Amino acid sequence: MISVDARGAGASEGNVAIMGTQEGEDGYDVIEAVAKMDWCNGNVALAGNSHLAIVQWFIAAQNPPSLKAIAPWEGCSDLYVSRNEVVGGYGSSHTTDDDISLRSENNSFEEESSTCPTLN
């Protein structure tokens, strides 16, 4: 088992790209590099929940030859819908856009995500 810091996170250089093709492309490179390690038989699988589940879908979409299985759980497939389910929708009296961590100080989640180049 290995644990990889995403681009721009932890000890990794670069800029963080969330929910998009960059993580898929980076994942492809990691899988193929791991498959070539002496201790690996060339078959690689992924497992994880939440963000790690979502990233698996982006990686699998790149179709790395050495990726043999993915095991995602508790990952949303539609961030907009899942976000509303998590916060109770816009009609909720106990949660507002101010409670959402994926937003800037002055914009709603929808406004911010439509202008964010890393949400690709």
End-to-end separation in angstroms reads: 28 Å
Residues in β-strands, percent: 5-15%
Would you tell me the overall average pLDDT? 75
Give the total of domains: 2
* Tally of DSSP helical segments: 4
> Order of SSEs, N→C?
HEHEHH
Shape: globular
How does the major sheet shape up?
2 strands, parallel
Explain what you see.
The chain folds into two domains: 1-75, no CATH class; 78-115, no CATH class. It is 35% helix and 11% strand. It has helices at residues 21-35, 51-61, 79-87, 109-115, and strands spanning 44-49, 67-73.
What is this structure's SSE topology?
Blueprint lengths: L20 H15 L8 E6 L1 H11 L5 E7 L5 H9 L21 H7 L5
Parallel strand pairs: 1-2
Helix pairs in contact: 1-2
Short description:
By secondary structure, the protein is α+β, with helices and mostly antiparallel strands. The protein has 4 helices and 2 strands. It folds into 2 domains: about 1-75, no CATH class; about 80-115, no CATH class.
Features:
about 120 residues; alpha+beta; 2 domains; two-stranded parallel sheet; 4 helices; 2 strands; about 10% strand; globular
